[in-house]
Structure formats: structure tokens, C-alpha cells
Write a structure and sequence with these properties.
Elements: E1 10-12, E2 40-42, E3 51-54, E4 57-62, E5 71-72, E6 77-78, E7 105-110, E8 116-117, E9 121-126, H1 132-146, E10 155-159, H2 175-185, E11 195-198, H3 206-209, E12 224-226, H4 235-254, E13 259-262, E14 267-272, H5 283-296, E15 300-303, H6 306-309, H7 313-318, H8 323-343, H9 353-357, H10 363-371, E16 379-383, E17 393-397, H11 403-412, E18 417-422, E19 435-439, H12 442-447, E20 454-455, H13 458-461, H14 466-481, H15 487-491
Parallel strand pairs: 9-10, 9-11, 11-12, 14-15, 14-18, 15-17, 16-17, 18-19, 19-20
Antiparallel strand pairs: 1-2, 2-5, 3-4, 4-6, 7-8, 7-13
Length: 506
């Protein structure tokens, strides 16, 4: 059993396959019914209407009396209302006074704009979804015919998306997907060698997507191919043009070499998906410890997921470095509240069926486990959707909780390494950034042995401490940043970018 806080009146079952009714636990409680792994049971008699406490926080109220040893799950709980966004604690929790970590380095690629990449990738950006099919055929040929000639290039990636035309390009919120595409193209793992494929008639013209690179003047540009230009006669000439431009970019990328860089050049995004009740007990606390180490080394760490942390807003504003940061945090949560109200929905929809099968009863419990990825340091800034991080230290990147839209926005924010924790399991992967997968349970790590990079379930079995796993993850980040492939990279797991288009909110 795992109990998270001294005030908790529930604990979760740690054993694989759960425990049967009649099991007597070390604290003297006897289970009244079979309790699945990761699910909660009551440690004391909880009366009808009584508070159910995990992480030292009220995560719900009992809808009937729950004698000690009862299985505690969604159907026997009533979720509390969302905390108010008014009168929150601001800058009341101060970060531990830890010494900096100065001697950690990795082997990265320095870029002309001062950023550092962990991979050396040719990115082919697209202004509109209409060109995606052509670009994919070209990229397949680039991989087969060109890449073998350039051994210092890690790969080529199509920045595919479903945007660019057929939309109200100047509608409220339209700036978010546009700036997202712009900042994705500027990710440090591309080394400034991005080429753009345009159709020609789309609403999102190249000069609007990348104004610093294109001036809108007619005529050829060394980084731009317009398929509707008169020079293209037949489909084959379109492909030939893309390959010829790619060859020029690949030659330049191939001349780059890794060099020793301080750990302060890392921009690490952290995220959880396919979560279970172990997420907040094993993997996410380990990520939180690694986050603290990274911040002490001068690096940037971004945690996210507005839809998951909303119920812990008081914890976030309390850790804000300044009142302005607290205000920005509240602004992002208020947007979510308005969004739910506008759509006639409520926050209970966030917890998925898989989350619930994994023991997470509601979004309050999920939020408490999600926030611990952020560690203990002060929150130095808030990165709006599609914006690029401008500050080092711990940042909150405002994103939805969907895995790929969150990952997309963190790529746009400039991350060069991604940490993804999972308890239920998901074959999540990004081609733009290496993804380190952390399993919350050893059973998952064993079954998905060639997808999970780190087994944080060893915390639950007592084989390792949170600090041990956090240190292991920290060292893994440095290794991966220096070129070691993750399992997701080994298999070439790739998913399309998913843009966040907020739509009008009144």
C-alpha cells in the first residue's frame, strides 16, 4: 500500500493485479472487497458525506458510508467544487535554498541564434495542409536517397498540420496556431535550416508564418518552394524541387558537430499521459526531483496542462516567483473556466476511462499527481500557447492536457528534450524532439520493455527512492541530450503536430 500524506484517509494498493477481499494489511485494516492495483481503499471509517483525503487534499466526499477497508472509486465519491480564482495565496511558498549545480554538461549543437539543439534535424515546414501529401512522398525519397550521404544528420521531419486555409485567418485566437507554427520552425533541434513548402493560394502565406525569413516578394527564395509556381511542370518536378533544396540544407547540417555545452542550455518539457494513481506516487515525483536538479543546473523546465492543474491553482500561485507570474497563472485558468462555461461542459470530463481504470477517480486527484512533476522551485514565468520560452528556470507552459497538442506547444516553446510519464501506457513519440518515456509501474515497464526508457515503479517496490530515480532521470536526460537514442527514436515513432485553436470565448 502507498499512502501519500500523513493526513490521508485512503491509500492505494501497490501489488500487481491488486489484492483480494479479506487481505489484512500491515496497519491492521482488512479489505472488505477486491481492490485492483492502483485503486484506493479507506484506512478508517469514512461517514456518508465525509471527506476523502489523498495528498493531504480533499479529493471528494463519500456518497455513502465507507467502512475501513472499502474500495474507494468514482461511483462512491462526489467531486468538490473547483477552487476559486480569487483571494489565492501569492508568493507565499519559497524555494529551498539549494546550492547551484555548475559542473554538468552535455554534447549539443550550438545554433546561430544562441540556442542549443540536442538533435541535428532537417525540418520541412508547410504553410497549409494541402501540401502534406506531396511533402511526405518527397521526405520518403530524402530518407532513402539523400540521408545516407549525410551521416551527421539525425533525420528529416515533416512539420505536418491541418491548418493554413479554409479557416478565418484573422478570427479571434487565430494568432495562436500561426505563432505556434512559426516557433516550431525555430525549434533549436532544426539548427535554423528549415525549408518551407507552400501551395501558393493558401491564406497562411509564408511571409505571415515566418515574417523574419520571407518578405512576400515574387521570385525564388532559397528556403521556399511554391508548388503552384510556373516552374513546376508535372508532379515529378515538384518532388525534384523539394529534393534539390533539401540536398543543399543537408550539406550544411552535415558540417555541424556536437560540442560540450553547459546543462543550462537544456529546455526540458515534462508531461504525463495515460496516467494512473501511481503517476503521482512514483514517476511524477521522480520527474519533480529531476526538475529541481535541472533548475539548479541553470536549465529551463516546462510543466503544462491547464486542464489538469486547474484544481491545484492555489499551490501554483503560492510558488510564483512574482505577483505578475501568479496573475498570469490565474489568467490561463480563467480562460479554461470560460471555455467550459461557453461549451456547457464541466471539468469532470478530463479524467478518461483509462485514468479511472488506473485508479484516478476524478480531476482533483489527477491534478495533485500532475503538479508534482514541477518539483519544488519557484515558478519563474508563464509561456502562453504558441509562445517561445524567454526565461530560464521553472516555467508553466499553458497547454491543454491532450498529449500531442501539449507536446506540440512545448516544441513551439523551444524544448529540446521531452519527458513523458505513463501508467496505463501509450506509444507517444515526437520526431522533432527526443522523448524519454517513464513508466509509473514495473509491470508496465516489463510488458513494454522496448518502449519505456525508465522504470519508476521501483519506487513502489522499495528498490529505489524518489531521489534515486530523479537522479537517474537527470543523468538520462544529459545522455539523451548528447545523442543517446530513446526507445521512441529507435522505433521511429512519429505523430502529426496538433495545433491548439482556442476558438472564440465570450
Amino acid at each position: 500500500m502507498i499512502r501519500m500524506h500523513a493526513d490521508d484517509n485512503v491509500a492505494i494498493v501497490a501489488n500487481d493485479r491488486g489484492l483480494p477481499a479479506g487481505t489484512r494489511l500491515p496497519d491492521g485494516v482488512t479489505l472488505r472487497e477486491k481492490v485492483p492495483q492502483a485503486h484506493k481503499f479507506s484506512l478508517i471509517d469514512i461517514p456518508d458525506g465525509g471527506a476523502i483525503v489523498r495528498y493531504g487534499v480533499v479529493i471528494g466526499h463519500a456518497t455513502r458510508a465507507l467502512p475501513a477497508g472499502s474500495w474507494v472509486y468514482e461511483a462512491v465519491m462526489r467531486m468538490p467544487p473547483a477552487p476559486s480564482l480569487d483571494n489565492l495565496p501569492v508568493c507565499t511558498v519559497h524555494a529551498p535554498d539549494w546550492p547551484p549545480l555548475d559542473d554538468y554538461t552535455f554534447e549539443g549543437y550550438r545554433n546561430p541564434d544562441g540556442s542549443v539543439g540536442t538533435r541535428n534535424i532537417l525540418a520541412i515546414a508547410m504553410t497549409v495542409q494541402c501540401v502534406a501529401g506531396v511533402a511526405e512522398i518527397a521526405i520518403e525519397r530524402i530518407r532513402k536517397e539523400l540521408l545516407p550521404r549525410y551521416p551527421n544528420v539525425d533525420g528529416v521531419v515533416a512539420l505536418r498540420h491541418g491548418y493554413g486555409c479554409g479557416v478565418a485567418i484573422d478570427a479571434p485566437g487565430a494568432s495562436i496556431p500561426i505563432r505556434t507554427l512559426r516557433h516550431i520552425a525555430q525549434n533549436p533541434n532544426f539548427g535554423g535550416e528549415v525549408m518551407v513548402v507552400s501551395l501558393g493560394c493558401e491564406k497562411l502565406q509564408p511571409e505571415r508564418m515566418l515574417p523574419d525569413r520571407f518578405d512576400g516578394q515574387p521570385g525564388p527564395h532559397p528556403d521556399l518552394i511554391r508548388l503552384q509556381d510556373n516552374e513546376h511542370v508535372g508532379f515529378g518536378s515538384m518532388i525534384d524541387s523539394i529534393l534539390a533544396m533539401a540536398d543543399t540544407h543537408l550539406e550544411r547540417l552535415n558540417r555541424r558537430r556536437r560540442e560540450t555545452c553547459p546543462a543550462s542550455e537544456l529546455v526540458v518539457g515534462v508531461q504525463c499521459g495515460g496516467s494512473d494513481a501511481f503517476s503521482g506516487a512514483t514517476a511524477n515525483p521522480a520527474v519533480g526531483h529531476a526538475s529541481d536538479l535541472l533548475v539548479r543546473a541553470g536549465a529551463t523546465v516546462m510543466f503544462s496542462e491547464v486542464t489538469e492543474v486547474r484544481d491545484g491553482i492555489d499551490q501554483l500561485t503560492a510558488r510564483a516567483a512574482t505577483p505578475e507570474v501568479a496573475r498570469d497563472l490565474v489568467r490561463e485558468m480563467a480562460w479554461y473556466d470560460d471555455y467550459l462555461q461557453h461549451g456547457g461542459a464541466d471539468r469532470s470530463a478530463n479524467t478518461t476511462p483509462g485514468n479511472k481504470r488506473g485508479g484516478l477517480s476524478n480531476i482533483v486527484e489527477k491534478a495533485m499527481g500532475s503538479i508534482v512533476k514541477s518539483g519544488s522551485t519557484a515558478i519563474k514565468g508563464v509561456v502562453g500557447p504558441g509562445e517561445r520560452a524567454q526565461t530560464k528556470g521553472l516555467l508553466y507552459a499553458a497547454t491543454p492536457a491532450g498529449d500531442f497538442v501539449c507536446g506540440t506547444l512545448q516544441v513551439a516553446a523551444g524544448m529540446n528534450v521531452h519527458i513523458f510519464t505513463t501508467g496505463r501506457g501509450t506509444p507517444y513519440g515526437l520526431t522533432e524532439v527526443p522523448v524519454i518515456k517513464v513508466a509509473t509501474r514495473s509491470d508496465l515497464a516489463r510488458r513494454w520493455h522496448d518502449l519505456m526508457d525508465i522504470d519508476a515503479g521501483r519506487i513502489a517496490t522499495g528498490e529505489a527512492s524518489i531521489e534515486d530515480m530523479g537522479q537517474e532521470l537527470f543523468e538520462c536526460i544529459l545522455d539523451v541530450a548528447s545523442g543517446r537514442k530513446t526507445w521512441a527514436e529507435h522505433w521511429g515513432i512519429a505523430n502529426d503536430l496538433v495545433l491548439f485553436n482556442p476558438g472564440p470565448v465570450t
